[in-house]
Amino acid sequence: MEEKLHKQVSELQEQLRRGDITRREFLRYATLLGVSLGAAEALAACAPAPTPTLVPPTPTPAPPTPTPVPVPKFYGWSGKVLDVDLTAGKAEAKALDQVCPDYKDYVGGRGLGVKILYDAVGPDTDPLGPENILIFATGPLTGTSVPSSGRFCIVSKSPLGRPKAGKDTRGVVFDSHSGGDWSDVLKHAGFDAIIIRGKAESPVYLWVEDGKAEIKDATPLWGKGCYETTAALKEEIGKAGIKVACIGPAGENLVRVACVINDADELGYGRACGRDGGGAVMGSKNLKAIAARGTLEVPMAKPGEMAAAIREAFDRQTPDPICGAGLPMYGTAILVNVINGAGAYPTCNFQWGMFKEAAKTSGEALVGEVAEVPKTLTKTEGCCRTCTMKCARVTSIPEPRPGYVTMGAGEGPEYETTWALGAQCGVDDVFAIEEAHYLCNELGLDAISAGSTIACAFELCQRAALDLSEVGYAKGENPFSDGEAVIKLVSKMALREGVGDELAEGSKRLAEKCGRPELSMSVKSLEFPAYDARGVLAHGLAYATSNRGACHLRAYLIAAEVLGHYCGVSPPDIDEPTVEFRLSKDGHKTDLVLIFQNLTAAIDALNECLFTVFALGADNYAKMLSAATGIDYTAEGILKVGERIWNLERLFNIREGLTKDDDRLPPRLEEEPMPNEVYSAKEKKALTPPVEVYPHGVVEKQPSAGSVVPIPEMLPVYYEKRGWDSEGVPTDAKLGELGLAWAKPA
Ligand code: SF4
User: What is the pTM of this model?
Assistant: First the structure.
């Protein structure tokens, strides 16, 4: 055991010996420190017994009248929501069914958050004004032993994503998810959710512990990075088992692509609610952090059924090649070679779909399996509670890079961030990608949007629409493939320094300001993640119709189109996905998009990790949810919850001004056929096949060459199957079926 951990565990043993904490609390705090449950049990047993206090013998009292044990009103849910008004300086615990009487229809997490948000804000609400609200929500499985359930989400009106039409205050609804321990601790602190309203006069943080909350001064923390903030708060509060979610300078500076980072620890881990600018919403409220500690029970309705459902889930996950092998061994970056090989790996702001040097930045490279790339992986254990897939990694840069390496170690990079700060910017230098990612975590930036905005700025500069002289490139020069420039722009963006002030607005606003809006690779102003839809057409439809903007996590069609996981929808008559299947747009693809969107919304309402979908189906989620809550949810019922959430989000966006014109991809993906070329960072130009691309050998033709995404053809089919009219508005019949008639657009 490391020396520091040893000291912390010894202190806990001492507290146990003195009787200051219970055995259960000991187990809980020890596991929060990273000790396995088995080891914690052994350590508890080793703690010296409390010194007996000598008391004079007393006569045997009459047996007490048994006190009836109160029956919990809620199972699975803790039944409490913390409502915080920062303007008034008040925090009040409210009953869940008072805040959301129909909570069973929305379950928790994304569903609960969206319902609360819909009722609280409207099209006149400035996303960065005090009237916007920010919700932190867990789900009924959070805090239980359900595999990969240690997650939470934030929900708000986005300062980044927006429809084209509407008032100046327009913004789409968004939810953004994260793992780690923070969610578990919040649930055990007695709350299903926290609602943040108003704006504090000066920087504050929220301290939540076992049913109580306090708003405290955070002035000394303002300006500090996420790791420094977390460490300072743990020291200030001085108790074991504290977990922190906070913002960095990017959130304070209202950078529209700022994120919320939680569980930033001395081991290097740090998880992010990345997408859509939640960090800026938090910053606009002068809220630096939420620190939490919890020891309360989460009552379970049917523990026996829950144990059986958990066993079944593990039995399905363990033999799955992705859940049981790929993710634990290589992390999400195992996808780099897979997606590059499919010709769907966006390169240099989506100018190309294949990157010759991609393997140098892959999951295999991180573990030292790629020649000439030193191993940088240092840790894989830990990460989200109750997860055996353990996709997160900590890396460190083994060689000093004076001049641009300032941190040198930290969490990641994941697949998405490897791409955003790498191929998307034409960069193949894994050290530069890692350093840029560490900085994103410390400064509190969404690495996907940050990398994509930098890539957009690079292309604007290349096409003489933006001057990047501050990082060495005048208008008309080509900055792609310069890793040092990426790192410098990450810092400038977070601190709003120089040209970074313009990048801080996100790629859409930046490209509009430069007169080239089509060069922002985004939907509804949210930057794309790491899949070029010209190589995966159903994924393209999912991007176009996504409620929070371009996002792979609203419906991960890559599972079906590339990895051959169809999530309960009858698979096509093929052994594994072919190029023809990926590039087809038939009705079956639309069915896949619908069911993936509904199922994902339901999984997000449970706050389960989406990666479980590779092995589990709606039936598994229904069993676990029913056992936790005591309410009978069926697989169909779960999908209906997801569909309800999806439609309510749609109605929110329509109220903000959204029309069918917002369900479109940038012209590059709809009109420019994928080039039959492979970009090379080493040569700083695209090469025409045949080209050697490790580990795929000689590529004779870019697999997606010539493809575009025919959204105008796919959209009407999608609307019809959704039960929406030709303008993309849910019909009365659909709203009635989902119990949403009350939210019918005016
Ligand atoms: S798979 Fe990764 S993100 Fe999902 S719960 Fe496990 S560690 Fe967390």
Answer: 0.91
